[in-house]
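Sorry to interrupt, but I need a hand with the structure work. It will help me judge whether the discrete encoding reads sensibly. Write everything out right here, beneath this request:
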Amino acid sequence: MKITGLKVMVCSPGRNFVTVKIETDKGVFGLGDATLNGREKAVAAYLESHLTSCLIGRDPFDTEDIWNYLYKGAYWRRGPVTMTAIGAVDIALWDIKSKALEVPLYQLLGGKSRNRLMAYTHAQGQDLAETVEDVVAVKEQGFRAIRVQSGIPGLKKVYGVSDKESYEPAVKSSRPVEENWSTAKYLEFIPKLFSAVRKEVGADIHLLHDAHHRLSPIEAARLGKELESYHLYWLEDATAAELQDRFRIIRQHTTTPLAVGEVFNSVYDCHQLMIEHLIDYIRMTVAHGGGITPMMKIANLASFHNIKTGCHGPSDLSPINMAACLHFGMAINNYGIQEYMGYPQETADVFSTSYKFADGYFTLDESPGLGVNYDEKKAKTFPYEKAYLPINRLEDGTLWDW
């Protein structure tokens, strides 16, 4: 079997997605997700201008060699654009292999380690009362794990909260919108929020929270310590992780489990965090982490240090990435949880999937490959529209982490 072509398709059924389709001389094709929120066209250009010619004539079963060829052969390694492009190719190649062998993808990764995969979703509100109400509503939908985000008194607009039913951070505009931030107001409010939520839903629901890289290490340590009595499943992105040793400070002061990594794109972003036992969950996702080939190695490294996975999986990555995360999670022993926000009907019209979700859990059937199909004709009815994630400023105007 030989690769004969690579198509890059950009569409916007509800939001922007970049999809890769790799074709072979045997008629078997594979799909990959190359979506990078706010930088979609950069990844598409990298694929079309640099990677396509490197793949024609290759055997799609040679995933290990092809991955290293694309990674090491570029000389300028890593970065979100490069790794998302490589990740899309790698996912598509694994899709081809498992389709050709007529087995679900997880069978090539070690088979089933479980029968179902627990997921968490998001609950939000403009204030404490509205947030608690939404948490209860999400619980009644059958979710066993809920990420809780709320508006902060005194702040007009904060991460994770929307005036719409579901949260979508990307805004279709010519430039990013600006939000505002106060760490002091946030730290004062969040323990009160989780006290109210825990009283309402009891001890049986897993609660999660995302600080979104906005705290210093000692501020994150304070928050983790103050949230200990509410038994969070995890505190996510407590501080920016470019300097991985910052997490030593947080770890020294709190027993709240820590999760990080949705912006990581290689093992080098999390190696120190793992070997020093500074986190409990690694949040790299398959599409942005370079694909299934490197993510299996990262999961193996994590397993030696009692770290579980919690793959980034919001609606700004397509159902192709979600399927790849689920097959990955089904196979590895140290699966933790999967993020899931659902998709609008427009997305479901373009991407049809075989995975099922009910009562807080995903299940996979025996469909060959990823179990995802892409309707190219319908996709063309949803043209690309430029959209950006917001930026964030402190109340005095200083640019801050978003």
